[in-house]
Amino acid sequence: MITGMTGFGASEAASGRVKASVEVKTVNHRYLDVAFYLPSGFSSFEEKIHKMVAKDIRRGRVTVSVKITDKPHMIIRLNHDAVARYRGFARQIAREFKVSDGLSAADILHLPGVVETKEMFVEAHTLWPAVEKGLVKAVAGVVAMRRREGKALCADIGGQLKRMLKRIVLIEARSNALLKEKKKTLSREEFTSYQKSNDINEELARLTHYIDEAKALLRQSEGAGKKMDFIAQEMQRETNTIGSKVQDKDVAGAVIALKSKVEKIREQANNVE
Fold it and tell me: Which range among 79-83, 99-103, 172-176 shows the weakest confidence by mean pLDDT?
């Protein structure tokens, strides 16, 4: 069955104390176009991510987002040597200048070099295995959603095709009735000319064939969108020819209805992968 192009999938990734969220979303696009929003250091994995996406998604604009949601912000280390030296200086000052040694732990913490801080950076190669698993889950979520959309699209397009067939039957019946009417009122030569200029059997046959082709496309699992759009264009062409050949109010109404349904099919084809 056909697949849609709108989908969303999300997952969580974790490695040690570092956590990340992974999101993949897709919308309509003529080709496969993948955009990346990755943390610093992850650009080297873009090609791998693109291959992972392309394995299950053939068409659409895909946005892959990886965000670090939780990590140790910094590493704090106590410089024991600095503390010992400050304490030694404090005792020396107390002895030499006859003052009390009133240096508290809080005072020591505020002294330069006692506490060393270092920002915690996330190493991409360390977190990547977890992100990769998260991407697999997120892409699977996208694919499942696109398949559900495909079912809805299949039902809608299938309904349009059925209604088109009814209009074709009406046009064919009206065309035959017109021939019988003209045969009674026109001379043999005039009737032959009329019959030739108003013959739409070929157009009706091709239009019916395109409807059968479109029905077959609805059963395909991938690559149906562009083909469906092409078939809809051909349907429109045949419908226009029918309308220009047969000048009749009933046929004109049926042709307008056919055009409307073909246009709806073309619109939906833009949503099919």
Answer: 99-103
DSSP notation for 188-203: HHHHHHHHHHT--HHH
Q: Which amino acid is at 232?
A: A
Helix axes 124-185, 188-197, angle to 10 degrees: 180
Q: HSE on the CB side for 52, CA within 13 Å? A: 20
Cβ(73)–Cβ(17) under 8 Å? Answer: no
Query: Read out DSSP for 138-198?
Result: HHHHHHHHHHHHHHHHHHHHHHHHHHHHHHHHHHHHHHHHHHHHHHHHS-HHHHHHHHHHT
Spatial CA neighbour of 157 closest among 236, 265, 233:
265
- CA atoms of 219 and 230, how far apart (whole Å): 17
All structural domains of the chain: 7-72+122-145 (3.30.230.40), 74-119 (no CATH), 149-269 (1.20.120)
Tell me the sheet residues that pair with 64: 24, 36
Listed residue (58, 51, 55, 74) closest to 26, CA to CA: 58
Which comes out higher in pLDDT, residue 190 or 120?
A: 190
Entry pTM = 0.76
Q: What percent of the chain has pLDDT over 90?
A: 71
- CA 128 from chain center: how many Å? 23
User: How confident is the model at residue 118, as a pLDDT?
Assistant: 65
205-247: pLDDT as tens digits: 999 999 999 999 999 877 899 999 999 999 999 999 999 999 9
Helix (H) or strand (E) holding 19: strand 18-27
Within a 10 A sphere around the Cβ of 12, how many other Cβ atoms?
A: 14
C-alpha span between 141 and 176 (Å, rounded): 53
